Amino acid sequence: MKKIITAAFLIIASFSYSQTENIIDSGPIPQAEKEDIKIYERNEVEVPAEFKDSNAKMNQFINENFVVPKEITEKIIKGDIILSFIVEKDGTLTSIKKIKDLGYSTGKELERVVKLDKWRPAELNGKRVRSTFNLTYTINK
User: Fold this and answer.
1) Tens digits of per-residue pLDDT, 67-86?
2) How far apart are CA 76 and CA 33, in angstroms?
3) In total, how many domains does the chain have?
4) Is 120 contained in some domain?
5) What is the dihedral of CA 34, 36, 39, 44, to 10 degrees?
């Protein structure tokens, strides 16, 4: 009986040991690297991120490229679609989240349209930085 208990203990101990992770601490992250990955809010930067031709032309661009689903026009649905995303240093968009959607894939369509072109990234101290952008597009057809 002692042999069975001892064998069971050794088997359980070996499984629990094999599932542990070896974590290597490379020390604190250097300040320059922290700034490189930091995501700034609009009010924290000197020059906020914007659509390539200016935010004023953004609505025109969206109107020209956004395909309104047939169900939206048939049911006369009006309202806002809200997206939140990060404008990267190279002007690409990442971490796109639909905050508000009218259904019928309107959020997905707006996401498609805003990704058609690069954006101008935000700037802080003369350097391009990653920043958040909240976009509201209104369908009122």
Assistant:
1) 999 998 888 899 999 999 99
2) 50
3) 1
4) yes
5) 90
22 belongs to a structural domain? no
Closest CA to 41 of 119, 132, 127: 132
What integer best gives the mean pLDDT of the chain? 82
Task: Note whether residue 18 is domain-resident.
Answer: no
3-state secondary structure of 90: coil
In angstroms, the CA 141 to CA 120 distance is 30
CATH number at residue 54: 3.30.2420
Q: What is the pLDDT of residues 32-62, one digit of tens each?
A: 566 678 999 999 999 999 998 787 789 899 9
pTM of the model: 0.73
Q: Which domain holds residue 116?
A: 39-139
Whole-number Å distance between alpha carbons of 112 and 82: 13
